[in-house]
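Q: Got a minute? One more chain.
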Amino acid sequence: MNEEIAEHADWSAPPLALRPVRVAERLTVGALLLAGLGWALRGVWEIRLAMAGEPASGPPDQGEGVHRPLNALEDSYHLVSSLAGGLALLCALLFLSWLWRVRDNAQALSGQAPKYAGIWVLLGWIVPVVNLWFPRGIVADAYRTTAPGRKLPACVNVWWGLWLIGMLSGVGFVSSDSTDEIIARAYHEVWPLLLSDAAVVGAAVAGAFVVRAVTAVQAERIR
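A: Always. Here it is, folded:
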């Protein structure tokens, strides 16, 4: 009886199943490039605003709750900004889905527990201070666990450095300014806006290389 119990008992956790990542890779790369294009369009419209100059009626937000009617160029900037924001949201959802997959695959392939708990795949982007390095750490851990001994691709550091510039600049991807306030800034100080936009676009392009690099080593390891 004891031998039968010992034969069928399994006190170890069941192995994790590998999750397909090729489709997630293609969708995420496409979303990153579209998000970068959306942010580039924002920069083009900010240049147009700077070249047009502020109307004689002043900025859209006149203070004390007073907003003047927008002209055609300002109205179109609102549309472009909303489009860029929508593409960025889609990109974020697909990137998180891909990141969770490669994190789980790295654990399944190596048998090692991930360095970061699963909750940090989401919270790591929004919790202050830890959002300065946790997301990069999760990506790096997935790569190094999948391909031990291989050097981390340079695109990971380029992506994360540009992302931090865009996030910390105060005028880029994470900005507390309203669209009308950004329009006013474009009329008077467009260069900080453009530099921040360039960092976000660069981060999107570098992020696409990151996704391809991590997915490639996992596909190779699975084969």
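A: Residues 21-53+70-222 form one domain.
Q: Perfect, thanks.
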